[in-house]
Amino acid sequence: MRTWFLGAAALLCVTATQAQSPAADAVGALFSPKRIVKTNLAGYAWLSANVNYEQKTGLKTSVGLLGGYKLPTVIHVSALGDLDGEKQTYTGDIEPKGLFLNPYFRFYPKEAFKGFYVEAFMRYFNYSYLVPYDYEKNGGTIRANLDGTASAVGGGLAIGVQFALASRLYLDINAGYGMAVGQAHIETNDPNLELEDYLTIKRNIEKYQDDADVQVFLLGDLLKDPDAKADESHAEADFTNKVFPTLRGGISIGYAF
Fold first, then answer.
1. Residue 220: helix, strand or coil by DSSP?
2. Whose CB among 28, 64, 88, 201 lies 3.0–4.6 Å from 54's, allowing a Cys bridge?
């Protein structure tokens, strides 16, 4: 009889331990962090001030939004050439600046916020910049700027790993690849130029588009198939429906709560 009681007691202890495990997991999930505020340290190398918010939506899923502002970053470009005997070169340093947004959804095979994850992301940006150029006229050189804007939207997939460095301090490392569609606009209304000058600029853009060394660097595509216009006060060109690859990646550090 004593042996029977000891066996029954041992069985009850095992059953109680097994029953506590799901309960402990539920309590742990209840009091674990539900959100993380991070910043991508790698982004600052490109002068991109940013903040990243991630929110749990389930035991293994989360959604988030990375957003920020790209500060002016110098990129050198050079273009076009001679047209009708006029030397017309678009050269100089471009400094794009503007807003970018990166919403995403993550699936963690183990547990949200912990370990390996797969991510589906979207990407949007809207930048402005100046394109300096030299224009030879009447034996002199006119130095002016094209006003430019570029925007795009797209998405892709990424993989990464996130883990706790301390009780509330997290490190997030990821990399991804996708595609985007964008457009760019350039325009000049220099008071030193006249109608014939603007028409020359328009013809230059159209005639030399295939030979241009200038790159719409924000769209990852050469200046091709422009919709160029000119009148007595300005010249402009639009480049639309440009498809190009987009990258996602970074090393972020954040606080969970």
1. coil
2. 64
Q: Give pTM, 2 decimals.
A: 0.75
| 233 close to 202: Cβ distance less than 8 angstroms | no
C-alpha distance across the termini of the chain, in Å: 54
Alpha-carbon gap, residue 222 to 215, rounded angstroms: 5
Q: Under DSSP, is residue 233 helix (H, G, I), strand (E, B) or coil?
A: coil
| 25-64 as b/e: b if 16+ CB within 10 A | eeeeeeeebbebebbbeebeeeebebebebebeeebebeb
Helix, strand, coil tally for the chain in percent (to 5): 20, 60, 20
pLDDT at 1: 44
86: CATH = 2.40.160
Regarding whether 147 and 23 lie in a shared domain, the answer is no
53 plus 138 within the same structural domain = yes
DSSP character string of 62-82: EEEEEEEEE----EEEE--EE
**Alpha-carbon gap, residue 162 to 113, rounded angstroms:** 6
Mark whether 132 and 179 lie in a shared domain: yes
Q: Structural domain of residue 9, as residue ranges?
A: 1-30
Helix, strand or coil for residue 15? Answer: helix
Judge whether 230 and 202 are in contact, CB under 8 Å: yes
Q: How many domains does the chain have?
A: 2
d(CA 221, CA 217): 7
| pLDDT one-digit tens code per residue, 3-40 | 443 343 443 344 444 444 555 455 555 568 999 999 99
What DSSP assignment string belongs to 33-46? --EEEEEEGGGGGG
